Amino acid sequence: MVKHIVIWKLTDSYEGMDQQEIAQEVQRRILAMKGTVPSLRHVECGIDFNRSERAWDVALYSSFDDRAALDEYQADPEHAKVKAFVGAVAREQAVVDYEV
Asked: CATH number of 2-99: 3.40.190.150, 3.40.50.300, 3.30.70.100, 3.40.50.2300?
């Protein structure tokens, strides 16, 4: 099993949305991949409520059967659409992939 975790710091505004609205849209788009991206076994997406200086804004937790399934996810067209949006609204990103 492979775990894929990503966290983002978001821009303050984007196309009329404030940061909270951006976070909600990121969450909505990520969760919409459930059931549409075949290799995605589990997905969670949370919006930070801590709001401290050390906090990040949005977190993705997902799992895959193996590294090949993670590679399939990375190449999936639905994931590419989400990734493009998140790329437009994220100031920073950090990723961890690991096997259990």
From this structure: 3.30.70.100
